[in-house]
Amino acid sequence: MRRVLLLLLLLPLVARAQVFVREPEEVAWGEDRIRIRWVTDQPVEARLQYGRTEALELGEQIVPASGTEVQVELQGLNPATIYWVAVALQGGARFGPWPVITASRSSAQVRAFFTCSVDPSAVPGPGAEGEANLLSFLLERIRAARASIDVAIYSFGDEGGIEALVDALIEAHRRGVRVRLITEDRAGISTGVGRLRAAGLPVSADNVGANDGSGLMHHKFAVFDYLTPDPLDDWVLLGSWNWTRQQTWTDCQNVLWVQDQALAAVFVQEFEEMWGSSGPVPDPEQARFAVRKRDNTPHRLRVGSRRVEVYFSPSDSTARALGRLLAGTERALYVAMSTFTHGGLANTLLERLRAGVDVRVILDNPTATGSQYGFLQAGGVETRVWPFSPGRLLHHKYAILDNRVVVTGSFNWTFSADRRNDEHLVVFFDTDLASMFLQEWAARYREVGGSRPLTWLGSSPDPGPDLHGPRLFPQPADADGVMVAWDYEGPVQVDIYSITGRRLWSATFRALAPRWRLPFPKLLPGVYGITFSTPTGMWRRLLWVRF
């Protein structure tokens, strides 16, 4: 009887040992390996399974119970290849399967083009390519393609020079290149599609099969030569540019060209989910658009030395991922946005402003239904409206975080982009690229009457897999201490300030991942500022002390 009672008492402890404090995620990438990390509340044996499909057919690794933070490498993998991974804790707790991807053997070249002027004097770093001819580089890539071209484009014209793109795709098709195109189904959006279909090119749209076309197929990306095994010929085009006369010659756009086979694999995975097959002809019955899509693409990868994240709407909770990134901004957050109606993201910008971050927004369309323009203005965010006539749009959808992270793509900050449309949002942790985007942003900022100098942090290291930095809990905290969750171990100086900026207390500790208690002298109830300084950076947080 005593033994039964003892087992019953121990059962809750066993259950707690099976909890993920931090869910498994990729933290390092090689051409033949991926490192996975997770954190549990107690040491527990785990099973890491993997495969080329969700069946996890390639096998498993048994991970002994050795600590609460676990890092395991999957080895013997192929470069630029998508794998599926799952982690099961002893007793049944499980995470996954989810897709991951190895690094490629590509050059990892990234080129940024902007159709409007740039200000190279605004910040140090490599010069940005302003007033760029987007058409010429795209034509060059189409004419150089050897095996395949996949295009997902919202709007595709056939005039004002754009007919050269139609001609080049038809010519590529005739010389044996596999050309596949997906576009928006609304009448008049893509006038160039008729000539492509007449020439025998396969074209699909977002109203085929069980898809009703109620959202927008709003992508603007293309992938070149993924069909070949050569890692040096895969190029991905992404950004804000629709292939029309107006968008090419008049509006302000940004386009990235990336030579990377792994990134190409991720975009082809998205393309083929909408295409419905991996072959040259679309399968309408298998095609998935908008709300019918699945979260089935890797979100984290390495492009050369850069960490990159990729999210596709509406399957990947894109706004949530974007909000997480914005919430981690420490010093400066600059936005250039065509349409901004997402209240949650606007609230995050206000929270960052109140935390001392330099937040500024340039907005093209302040009168859109649900626009956050007035809300941001009332909250104190410097929000300026693009002043030009409706004939020239600020068509950007980008943000620059702490001069080290660029967020761009087709994703306007709207609920429709997050929940209804087919969109892409790509995050580059790259100080050089951030410098180029800052040069473009600074030029637009001056044009809308801005005069304040930019907050320049200089180069900073890749922040690693956790952009949040230290997180305090619970909030409000006790008057004499607070818990800190942080993926960092090492020396840290902690300073506490009054709300007026007067330093009240300073001490040095050794941070212990994943969580530790920070004691401090008894504080009166209220709000304080707190900073954490390490050899590689500084993080600011607000501290609420309970009444």
Question: Key terms for this structure?
Answer:
8-stranded mixed beta sheet; single chain; 11 helices; 547 residues; 29 strands; alpha+beta
Fraction in beta strands: 25-35%
| Overall geometry | globular
**If helices are DSSP runs of H or I spanning 4 or more residues, what is the number of helices?**
11
Report how far apart the termini are. Answer: 47 Å
Q: Which secondary-structure class do the elements indicate?
A: alpha+beta
Strand numbers in spatial order across the main sheet: 15-16-22-21-20-17-18-19
Average per-residue pLDDT, rounded, comes to: 90
- Per DSSP E runs of 2 or more residues, the count of β-strands stands at 29
> What's the alpha carbon Rg, rounded to whole Å?
25 Å
Main sheet properties: 8 strands, mixed
How does this structure look, described?
The chain is α+β, with helices and mostly antiparallel strands and 547 residues long. It contains 11 helices and 29 strands. The chain has an 8-stranded mixed beta sheet, sandwiched between helices. Strands 8-14-13-12-9-10-11 form a 7-stranded mixed beta sheet, sandwiched between helices. Strands 4-3-6-7 form a 4-stranded antiparallel beta sheet. Strand 23 and strand 24 (481-485) form a beta hairpin.
